Amino acid sequence: MIYIFSGPIESGKTTKLEKWIKDRIDVSGILMPVLDGIRHIYSINSEKFFPVEADKNEDPEKIINIGKYYFLKKLFDRGNEEIERATKSEKKIVIIDEIGPLELRGEGFSPGLKKVKDKFEGKEKILLLVIREGLVKEVTNHFHISEYVLISSLSELNIFLNNRG
Description:
Layout: E1 2-7, H1 13-21, E2 27-31, E3 34-35, E4 38-43, E5 48-51, E6 63-66, E7 69-72, H2 73-88, E8 93-97, H3 101-104, H4 110-116, E9 126-132, H5 136-142, E10 149-151, H6 154-164
Parallel strand pairs: 1-9, 1-10, 2-8, 8-9
Antiparallel strand pairs: 2-4, 3-4, 4-5, 6-7
Helix pairs in contact: 2-4
């Protein structure tokens, strides 16, 4: 089953997810929190943070640029590996935070999502994608995701999980 957690830009989606996963043992995947003004990839399984932002003067072959942001390609490679590892784990819920303009260009977490999304459509295991408001239709079309449940709060997901037993 695929769930899409959506809300406005900078509305606290990642922060809410950080709090939500704190006491859960059935979750794996990645989050993209900002710590001390720098975006990181957070591996839920290893509980490790990896700073992903790069200096704009970095070697152009090593970075991805989107708007005012510059990211290290190798860290997104690591994030995609984390996504695959999470999908193979016994954990019931896999989170990918977030899918956006970078992924629509085929970069960022696009390779990881493309590899794993079919493992969740119509299945018991849950893929929870974080997508900013206004991009849901474009992302679902781009990645050919036809079966999903759109949620705007994690309490909606909790209701589903509680009803499943």
